[in-house]
């Protein structure tokens, strides 16, 4: 609420109003978009920091709307969460990422590769989430170790008990788990003890100012040390320059992801990428 003076409170500023309108409009269209086939996935490569070997892709959701053009997830994921649409949307992403993986494996392109998929709070909070994941893997004939699920701290903190249950079940099933945007939340270290995961992803905001900004170097070095101490691999996202890559390699970072290595690509382009960067 904005205070306009004595006793006068206006519920929304004009800017908020636009945002509310935008959300309402996006929300109404998003529901239909799922049915109309307007959603698709881009795939961004992840490579071994030391050898450059192709390790896998992160699946990133896209919405191509006839009226709105290409809408990026930063604009519509929060809207979908607000509408309670995220379990459905998230299941769509998981299903399509697994189907794509299956197709690439059948084409001899993806042996040993891992598909990373983002998971929203509303998904991990569901008691049947782990079962959903294993069902989806089975349906596509994939091994659990071929899937990595990326969680943000806030998605787990919304209901720790429920999240822990899902995480334990997924971990026991052999699915790989990663902490996304690591270091941007509030309770990063304490939750590392509770949630045993396989990987930490250094947020791109920390990678951005490498190698010149000393504080960013210290943070990257610290995250890598913490990860390795706890037997986790560390992934750097948002790697855009050779200087960033060189420093991350020198600090012992395990995996690189970012425009320097490859932009997010649609499925045909990602398939071409795999032909040029064989796995294994
Ligand atoms: P994220 O998980 O941190 O994903 C990485 C974002 O960084 C992606 O943006 C990617 O395109 C972008 N990126 C990759 N390399 C670089 C780089 O070198 N430089 C810069 N500046 N950016 C780079 P995108 O695709 O717009 O996704 C934004 C966020 O939306 C994601 O952030 C993720 O939190 C969320 N998201 C995307 N797809 C899904 C999904 O299927 N489910 C859920 N729950 N969230 C998703
Ligand atoms: Ca992610
Ligand atoms: Ca991230
Ligand atoms: Ca991020």
Structure notes:
The chain has 280 residues and is α/β, with parallel strands linked by helices. Helices cover 48% and strands 22% of the residues. It has an eight-stranded mixed beta barrel, surrounded by five helices. Helix 3 runs parallel beside helix 5 and helix 5 runs parallel beside helix 7. The longest helix is centred in the N-terminal third of the chain and has 23 residues. The protein is globular and about 50 Å long. The mean pLDDT is 91. The structure holds ligand C2E and calcium ion (3 copies). One calcium ion binds next to loops. This is EAL domain-containing protein. It comes from Dyella ginsengisoli.
Indicate the radius of gyration in whole angstroms.
20 Å
Net shape: globular
Mean pLDDT: 91
H and E order: EEHEEEHHEHHEHHEHEHHEHEEH
Q: How many DSSP helices?
A: 12
Low-confidence stretches: none
Structural class given helices, strands, pairing? alpha/beta
Using DSSP, what is the number of strands?
12
Work out the strand percent.
15-25%
Describe the biggest sheet?
8 strands, mixed, barrel
Distance between the termini: 56 Å
Please bin the fraction of helical residues.
Answer: 40-55%
Strand order of the largest sheet: 3-4-6-7-8-9-10-11
| Bound ligand species | ligand C2E, calcium ion
